[in-house]
Amino acid sequence: MRDSWELPVSVRLAIANWPQDSAHGAVAEFCHMHGISRSWFYVLRKRAQGDGLAGVAGRRSRRPLTSPTRIDASVEELALQVRQELIKDGWDGGPISVRHRMLERGLPAPSRSSLARIFARRGVVTANPKKRPKATRRFVYPAPNECWQLDGFDHPLADGRLVSVLQVIDDHSRRIVASRAARGETTVDIQAVLQAAMNKVGVPQRFLSDNAAAFNQSRRGRTGAIEAWLRSLGVQPISSTPGHPQTQGKSERHHQTSQRWLAARGPARDLPELQVLLDTLEQAYNERPHQSLGMLTPLQAWAATPVAPPPLRPALNAEPGRPTDGEVIARKIDKKGVIHLGMARIQLGRQNAGAIVLTTTEGDLVHIWDKDGLHLRTITLEAGRRYYGNDATPGPTADLT
């Protein structure tokens, strides 16, 4: 039997106008002639009686008369507007973020899947299956301060100069613990941003970084100044596997957010202005709901779990003489304000007589820290030179008493 909608219009019209007083057997003969069933004949004739010729003139739509769950066009426009506001402000404009922002404002908020369909239908997103995460299980340290991650990225100033942005992230809570605008990924700047983080929330148990020379030199067969300093505080330095950036996925993902947020505000003129932006970003990010935290803010996630206790400091080697590279030596400043490193005498100021400092060496470089790990100065040892006054290699000074 043929589908009734494959029939010529003339046949359908003949059915619609079929006379009431047709001869017995005429319907059966008509249906046999046109290859349709008598049941379809009477269905079409009944539709014609209810809807007129329009009832049989074409295929009827199966769309329901009402759609109670259909999202109103005005709500779709609100969702698109909220998405655009988020993106303009430098934040993620995905369905979860848009839904949360709409709920915050008391607006009618469609589900995440509905918003995803709206954005796809309106052409504001492009499907990219490659971006779907392959991992089905995330690794997170159980408590704040169990592990920090530090990484940097290049950022342009208004005059085109590239500088570095260093950010310390707590693995458990995703909290930005400290940020620093720096000329580069130098030992001094890394020390400074880590020290700022420790002053704020305490000393972490572990520290994860990539294999850049400024962060970690263990794969080069050496112990760098940062690694030696961290070990002197009891912190366990960890480095990611070469060619496997997923180890620092949290930092890498955070960089995307930071770069987008900074780009939305235009380039800073200098490092101090960039630092102000980073401080503002730190507060805004830590107080903003995070998808990986179940829409808790990083500060809420931090407060929800007791902070891990600080690590135990190892016993320090107090033997005189020049240490091997990376070895931490505790030295006492004599009454003249001098410490002795082999044949070299390094002046730290008479006001600091009797104080204990820590020293590490890195080739001909000598790094000096106070007993709490604050960097004091770095000097370069020169062949034949015995005395290094306060005017040696410039560096921050401090009253240690």
Structure description:
This protein has helices at residues 9-16, 26-34, 38-51, 54-57, 73-88, 95-104, 112-121, 187-201, 225-232, 249-263, 271-286, 298-304; strands spanning 148-156, 162-170, 176-182, 206-209, 236-239, 329-332, 338-341, 344-347, 356-362, 365-370, 375-380, 387-388. It has four domains: 4-57; 73-126; 148-304, Nucleotidyltransferase, domain 5 (2-Layer Sandwich); 315-401, no CATH class. It starts with 8 loop residues before the first helix and ends in a 13-residue tail after the last strand. It has a five-stranded mixed sheet with strand order 3-2-1-4-5, with helices on both faces. Helix 6 (95-104) packs across helix 7. By secondary structure, it is an alpha/beta fold.
Task: Describe the structure using short key phrases.
single chain, 401 residues, alpha/beta, Nucleotidyltransferase, domain 5, 4 domains, 4-stranded antiparallel sheet, 12 helices, rod-shaped
Element layout with pairings:
Blueprint: H1 9-16, H2 26-34, H3 38-51, H4 54-57, H5 73-88, H6 95-104, H7 112-121, E1 148-156, E2 162-170, E3 176-182, H8 187-201, E4 206-209, H9 225-232, E5 236-239, H10 249-263, H11 271-286, H12 298-304, E6 329-332, E7 338-341, E8 344-347, E9 356-362, E10 365-370, E11 375-380, E12 387-388
Parallel strand pairs: 1-4, 4-5, 8-12
Antiparallel strand pairs: 1-2, 2-3, 6-9, 7-8, 9-10, 10-11
Helix pairs in contact: 5-6, 6-7
